[in-house]
């Protein structure tokens, strides 16, 4: 009934800063995910993938899907599907889904977020027969970012934002809290070579990515407390911290040097500093 396309992305400026609240400068790429979707009379979602390494799967609706820690390929579709169903207050039980992608998996080009966004848009289309007339692009990007948390990653929202907001011939300055964006036209003579080194990392299948996110949150609270911020427990990101201290990035460098005096922070010292227990 519907065919949906969602691009991958590369990030030009601002690696691993979106989940700390800072702006990034990505652009979409030609490689993309395609989702073909239709209704089916039987219950469940019947998944197929044009890539033979990803086997078919029939997802039954016996219980409410609440997410998964080690995702299979179809779980990324379920993220977007569930996000839209929650937004609309409905649940579509009978669907046929065929997925095809030209984005190299686990290569840092946001193949997983592309599936989530394509899934969400396909679900929205098949239920409402509309797309961005029932939800703004900004709201939709934030919906997709939240929905991807169902497979366990604590992303900052860059991937979903550029994949939803991208404009042909432009990179995008994306800022957060609230989400806002500025299209920057790329020179017509510019050429971007996106090369795959051959190494892969399944972000959602390891704790590496989430560890960086948590470490940044912990650092923000440790500095906030040392700075004398009364409501330091409410500080969630380094950008939030900088705003609370009325400091720019250069000034924050000096704050860090002054207040983070230990060469190495152990789990025990962090628990003591933040007045929490391991449990």
TrEMBL record:
Keyword field contains Nucleotide-binding: yes
Domain Galactokinase N-terminal intervals: 2-39
Signal peptide: none
Domain GHMP kinase N-terminal, chain residue ranges per copy: 76-165
Single GO BP term: galactose metabolic process
Keywords, alphabetical: ATP-binding, Nucleotide-binding
Entry's Gene Ontology molecular function annotations: ATP binding; galactokinase activity
Highest taxon of the lineage: Eukaryota
A matching Pfam family: GalKase_gal_bdg
Record keyword Nucleotide-binding present: yes
GO cellular component: cytosol
UniProt-listed InterPro entries: Galactokinase, Galactokinase_CS, GalKase_N, GHMP_kinase_N_dom, Mevalonate/galactokinase, Ribosomal_Su5_D2-typ_SF, Ribsml_uS5_D2-typ_fold_subgr
Assigned protein family: Belongs to the GHMP kinase family. GalK subfamily.
PANTHER family named among the record's database cross-references: GALACTOKINASE-RELATED, MEVALONATE KINASE/GALACTOKINASE
Name of the protein in question: Galactokinase
Source species of the chain: Parascaris univalens
